[in-house]
Design goal:
This protein is an alpha/beta fold and 263 residues long. Helices cover 40% and strands 16% of the residues. It folds into two domains: 172 residues, Alpha/beta knot; 72 residues, Orthogonal Bundle (Trp Operon Repressor, Chain A). The longest helix has 19 residues. The protein binds 6-chloroguanine.
Length: 263
């Protein structure tokens, strides 16, 4: 899998060199390239932004600079007709390229989105700063037939897309075969399938600072695996009810939907 990040802060992504993803990059499982957007400017000041048309606060990133950068990284000709043909041809060969634009105004990035992106051949991240990237940029690549995902990692505001790109890269890369040490930990974790949070985990010592698992969770030490599975599921449900009422509402909606189909 090829990952490209275009940013005005390439150093921001250097932490990836220290991570599992950086190690995967070393083995060729993941090919990660970070690009400096300013490499596609032509003026002395390497300008990437301008004031918002129609007025308002902050600065907006220029579409011309982004266009040249993304044509290069997506390997597309600048001419829209030729680009459209290149995209169609590539899709015909089953090659999947996705342009991800991190933005607080995007659709919510979830484990489902990560699972989907993990099937792509190339994911290109266009990291905006200031008030964002000129809206014609994602529009243009969508018109060319490129799969474009404008994604938000949650309901809060960051100063730029770089931290969001780091989050998305880690969530996606660990789903690729060979990137994570233990593939079992991919299936049992929170948000994977059941729509429940993960149950609490424990290790030795059995008694620690007055918290004795032999007292609070005798089932855990019983060796009775059906009982352990049952108690873990109860814990997962209790936790989800307490912490994530939104997930409980979705579970109930799903169950109602299934019942309607059965009736
Ligand atoms: Cl993807 N970008 C920014 N700037 N802020 C965010 C975000 C993304 N997701 C949540 N907040």
């Amino acid at each position: 899998m090829r990952l490209d990040v275009v940013t005005i802060f390439p150093d921001y992504l250097r932490v990836l060199d220290l991570s599992l993803i950086g190690k995967a990059a070393g083995t060729g499982l993941i090919d990660l390239v970070v690009h400096d957007l300013r490499d596609w400017t032509h003026d002395r000041h390497r300008t990437v932004d301008d004031t918002p048309l129609g007025g308002g606060a902050g600065m907006v990133m220029r579409p011309d600079v982004w266009g040249e950068a993304l044509d290069t990284v997506l390997d597309l000709p600048a001419d829209p007709t030729a680009a459209r043909e290149a995209v169609t041809a590539r899709r015909g060969t089953g090659t999947r390229q996705v342009l991800v634009v991190p933005t607080p105004a995007g659709e919510l990035f979830t484990q489902r989105t990560a699972e989907d992106l993990a099937h792509a051949d190339q994911v290109v991240f266009a990291c905006g700063r200031y008030e964002g990237i000129d809206a014609r940029v994602p529009e243009h690549y969508r018109e060319l037939g490129v799969e474009v995902r404008e994604l938000s990692i949650g309901d809060y505001v960051l100063n730029g897309g770089e931290a969001a790109a780091l989050v998305i890269i880690e969530a996606v890369a660990r789903l690729r075969p060979g990137v994570l040490g233990n593939p079992g930990s991919v299936v049992e974790e929170s948000h994977s399938e059941a729509g429940l949070l993960e149950y609490p985990v424990h290790t030795r010592p059995v008694a620690w600072r007055g918290h004795d698992l032999a007292v609070t969770w005798p089932g855990l030490l019983s060796g009775d695996h059906p009982r352990i599975a049952r108690e873990r599921r109860e814990q997962a449900i209790a936790r989800t009810v307490a912490r994530r009422p939104d997930m409980v509402a979705r579970l109930e909606a799903q169950r109602l939907g299934a019942g309607d189909r059965a009736a």
